[in-house]
């Protein structure tokens, strides 16, 4: 039941992203006659401190979060997986160096590094993506490396080597399909992490810049009016919470599905 | 009835003996319950929440507004200002014996907090220490026209000037310190010692505690950075007074709460939009006029400030002795703004096209990262957009923003002048020779007519003539839109209902603390 609810929420998120393509200038249109109005039939979620409709801005925020989440996950996964497979497959000094680099990145708090990078690079959605990719590739690299280490001595890999199959083909045809499942689970958690991280950076003023909407900067603006207009924080805050919860629950379900032992135990 | 609140209760538990910590807590809770959980206000303490800790309690070095306001309570000065910002006697009355010679006579026997008398020697020592270059006072610049200071007798001191200065008396606003402590290099910023209405009892990062000398009423300044927290604290009764520095919505919210009342008073803080006169577009008067007619200031005052501001005209408020009334208003008129924009010579490379293929020009608008300033900038942006002027808002932390403004790296910016009393501010802000770092002519405004009026006013030895010249100057600056006037924000204070007699002043000073009283009330929180 809860997984169906999670699925509905994620679908709703995607629908909001589609809807955001049809949101026009009205989302950024200042209306001095409607500052901080509460929810009403005219504005279902009320208006913000500049009289802009909150519903439309929440919808635009969904677009921002999806853009950041997908960009960060795709770039991080491609970079991290490539490095992890290369490192484990070739081994030796390459593996030792890569392992040390991964250890250094893991030793440093990820979000703190992202904040530092975003502060140096300056605010902007592209810089947020860059900063999160810099700290995000490590998880994929570690996972891909571990999986590759357990797979590189398998018979089908050795057979491919014996047949002089080029390495790139071994990676693509014989390794990658076998490590896709755990990487997929990592990616689902990565989506939730990226959404939270983008909101956090925007909350700190390092992410998406006004008048563009992001759930993080909407919460940031709303905190100033918490006493007089709590809906400014509640609307994006609840949207953020539900989305992250839903994505994490779906990730959990995906992991459980891939866990063969768990499946057999459940059946027994 | 015990005077107990939650914090004191927890503190008392933590300092109790180990046995009491173990078994005494329930007993203490019971005792508290039996006492009816009543909370009694402490009448001998009036608490004011302020935005930060006052930085400098030595009046010779204080430059920030918060420190200056607290220093007024600790130290008395030679003169003060009336409602029209004309100097009036405070510690001393004065006579102008010649254009460069002023005599100050203390009016009464004033005493420092230890009971020792305040004498002419103390006045001379205070100003001589400010004039000492090694001391490094920021106020030395405004006083360097003093040639010498001579003590005539115990109550009389003469100031001799290098050059005639009709505004000289208005510059003598430094709090007077005792000579013997100045000679001992007493750390006044840590242990204030003056002849003001209050004495300082303690200074810490958490609070500054003063005591009114007349009735031993304690006044506590508590730094609370966040505006929402300041409001929550006053609603809960942890502080009694919050003056200014709240968003208009929070002030409106406080007006609806039964525990507090809100007082308003006209203010003098002048908000404005600055132009860069070295810019190709903004150096053209029609361009500046188009912006002025394109921004609906009254709508902003009504919507954001709920009417608690008045339209600005000049840097000095109209009620100032050299202020000017009835300047032509730059009313909101989009069609006039569009017509003016057509008169602007716009280089082709500066004209861009939007997605509807409509031409527009982009102007950079710099502001601090204060959320209210960004909010205002966004409103201007939306009002100017239909005219074909796209404001590119760039918000920076205060240091970066202020540095950019001083160096002229901007097209438009917004700031406010706070606490302006003397009309010689015009020399500092609009004279051609006052471009930073020599002054505060940040817009690089160069105008021979304005320069001539500033020079003539400075050379005049008649206050009446100066007032007339400054009025002509303000009219000229207004016509040329040397800066676009926005508004004068009202002063306001949120007060607990127990506070009475608190008066607000146009310049935001805290002198209301000297008269206000707090009555005892018992709140039963059963």
TrEMBL record, chain A:
Keyword Cell membrane in annotation: yes
Domain ABC transmembrane type-1: 62-251
Annotated localization: Cell membrane
Alphabetical list of Gene3D superfamilies matching this protein: MetI-like
Residue spans crossing the bilayer: 66-89, 101-121, 127-144, 178-205, 225-251
Domain of life: Bacteria
UniProt KW keywords: Cell membrane, Membrane, Transmembrane, Transmembrane helix, Transport
Record flagged with keyword Cell membrane: yes
Primary residence: membrane
Mode of membrane association: Multi-pass membrane protein
Family, as annotated: Belongs to the binding-protein-dependent transport system permease family.
Protein name: ABC transporter permease
Lineage, opening ranks: Bacteria, Pseudomonadati, Pseudomonadota, Gammaproteobacteria, Thiotrichales
UniProtKB/TrEMBL annotation, chain B:
Residues of the Solute-binding protein family domain: 87-429
InterPro entries: Peptide/Ni-bd, SBP_5, SBP_5_dom, TAT_signal
Protein name: ABC transporter substrate-binding protein
High-level lineage: Bacteria, Pseudomonadati, Pseudomonadota, Gammaproteobacteria, Thiotrichales
